[in-house]
Specification:
alpha/beta; 9 helices; about 220 residues
Length: about 220
């Protein structure tokens, strides 16, 4: 039994390296729309599939990307591509790397993201089938001074059946908490953001060098 275990581990690591290097990039004709929350709900209802949403870091990236992709692979192995679709935040950075693994395993993929991403010319993952831009003055999370989720985060939560966060910052934290309050199935897997990026960001902002890289979501879970 030891030999197969090592083989599976080696395969998972190789997959993580390939994805991290952008190997085997998808060749999809992604459908991109800016639609109302009602239209998004109608789309997922019409699909009649369980929606598995991954949350986590985006631009902050991960300290150990290979380990994160192994975690995501194990979760996807437990799901049926014929009955489940994979939803993330549409962009390729950070948790968005899971899109490629999902497509390799035969999942239909969707992305829900704020119009702030479009207006900022943020790239979309090449491995997402359908992207919904949500008209939003924020990037997501709670609206300032309230306990109400932004339009983008509201769409993420209400259209998901299961939400898995692998690390994550404030937006992931708020969405996971909102999902938990709504009675959704949620799971949090601890993961450090990329240390070098976090330090560089702090230096640019004139802030103290960070020593905790666990992300805001970890404080809630």
């Amino acid at each position: 039994m030891t030999r197969p275990s090592r083989t599976i581990g080696a395969c998972l690591f190789a997959l993580a390296v390939l994805v991290g290097q952008g190997a085997g990039a998808c060749d999809l004709h992604t459908k991109v729309e800016e639609v109302t929350p009602e239209a998004i709900r109608a789309f997922f209802k019409d699909k009649n599939m369980k929606v598995l949403t991954f949350l986590g870091y985006s631009g902050a990236e991960y300290e150990n990307k290979a380990a994160i992709l192994e975690q995501a692979t194990r979760i996807l192995q437990q799901a049926d591509p014929q009955r489940t679709l994979v939803n993330i935040g549409a962009t390729p950075e950070g948790i968005g790397a899971v899109y490629e693994i999902a497509k390799q395993r035969g999942f239909f993929t969707t992305g829900i993201v704020s119009t702030q991403a479009r207006d900022s010319n943020v790239a979309l993952s090449p491995c997402v089938d359908v992207v919904f831009y949500v008209h939003d003055a924020t990037w997501g999370g709670l609206l300032t001074g309230t306990e109400q989720l932004s339009p983008t985060s509201t769409a993420m939560v209400e259209n998901s059946d299961r939400l898995v966060a692998i690390g994550g910052g404030e937006v992931a934290r708020d969405e996971l908490m909102g999902a938990k309050l709504a009675g959704k199935e949620v799971q949090f897997i601890p993961a450090d953001m990329n240390h070098a990026k976090a330090i560089e960001k702090a230096v640019k902002k004139g802030q103290p060098t960070p020593s905790d890289f666990r992300g805001a979501a970890a404080s809630a879970f």
